[in-house]
Automatic annotation (TrEMBL):
PANTHER family: RIBOFLAVIN SYNTHASE, RIBOFLAVIN SYNTHASE ALPHA CHAIN. NCBIfam families: PRK09289.1, PRK13020.1, ribE. One of its GO terms (biological process) is riboflavin biosynthetic process. It is an enzyme of class 2 (transferase). Residues 1-97, 98-194 form the Lumazine-binding domain. Keywords: Repeat. Its EC number is 2.5.1.9. Lumazine-binding repeats lie at residues 1-97, 98-194. GO terms for molecular function: riboflavin synthase activity. The keyword Coiled coil does not apply. This is Riboflavin synthase.
Length: 206
C-alpha cells in the first residue's frame, strides 16, 4: 500500500522493450534505496511495480503489455521523469489516502495550468469510471493523492498547490496526454453495492 504522497521525481535512465513488455530503469536517490530489495513494490507514476534489478542507483522494473495498455507507462520515454513512492510501513504517517497502485483507467488531460495564482488539471475519464468520482473525494492521479474540486459529467478538475507542482511530474504534461487514475476503493465498493441493491429491489416493486 501507498499514501499517495510522492517522495521524489526521478529520471528514467533507460526503457528497453522485450517480447511481452518493457523494462524501465529508474535512477533513485540514496534515501529511496535504503533497505530496497529485489521483489519490493514501488509506486512508479501511480503504478505498483516490482523491483527486478538493482545496480548502484539504477533500479529496474518490468511491466507486461497488459500493464502498458492499461496505464500511461507505455507512453513514457527515456530521459523523462516519474513520480516515485516506496511502499508505506504500518507505522508511517499517512498524509494522503490509502492507495494500492492498481490503475483503474487512464484519463485524457483536457487542460492544465501551472500559473502561480491558478494551477489546476482538468481531465476526462471513461463514462464507466466517472460514477466513482465525487467533488471533494479522494483520487490518485499518477500516484499522487489529490482532492477533486469540480465535476461536470465525466470532466473533472483538481486544483494544484505549488508544492504539488514542485514534487510531481504534472508540470511536464500537456493537453492530450494520458494520466493514470486510481479511484478510492471504498467509494467504488459503496457505489457498486448500492447499484446492485437497487437493481434487485426496484424490479421487485414494479
Amino acid at each position: 500500500m501507498y499514501t499517495g504522497i510522492v517522495q521524489a521525481v526521478r529520471p528514467l535512465a533507460d526503457i528497453t522493450a522485450y517480447p511481452g513488455g518493457k523494462t524501465f530503469t529508474v535512477r533513485l536517490t540514496d534515501d529511496l534505496l535504503v533497505d530496497l530489495k529485489l521483489g519490493a513494490s514501488v509506486n512508479i507514476e501511480g503504478t505498483c511495480l516490482s523491483v527486478t534489478g538493482i545496480d548502484g542507483k539504477n533500479v529496474t522494473f518490468d511491466a507486461m503489455n497488459a500493464t502498458l495498455e492499461r496505464t500511461n507507462l507505455g507512453d513514457l520515454e527515456a530521459g523523462q521523469s516519474v513520480n516515485v513512492e516506496r511502499s508505506a510501513k504500518m507505522t508511517d504517517e499517512n498524509g494522503g489516502h490509502p492507495i494500492a497502485g492498481h490503475v483503474a483507467t487512464t484519463a485524457v488531460l483536457e487542460e492544465i495550468s501551472t500559473a502561480e495564482d491558478k494551477a489546476f488539471i482538468r481531465f476526462r475519464v471513461p463514462e464507466e469510471w466517472a460514477k466513482y468520482i465525487f467533488p471533494r473525494g479522494f483520487l490518485a492521479v499518477n500516484g499522487c493523492s489529490l482532492t477533486v474540486a469540480d465535476v461536470e459529467d465525466n470532466l473533472f478538475t483538481i486544483n494544484l498547490i505549488p508544492e504539488t507542482l514542485r514534487q510531481t511530474t504534472f508540470s511536464r504534461y500537456n493537453a492530450g496526454d494520458r494520466l493514470n487514475i486510481e479511484v478510492d476503493h471504498q467509494t467504488m465498493v459503496m457505489v457498486d453495492v448500492i447499484e446492485r441493491t437497487m437493481a434487485r429491489v426496484l424490479p421487485a416493486k414494479a
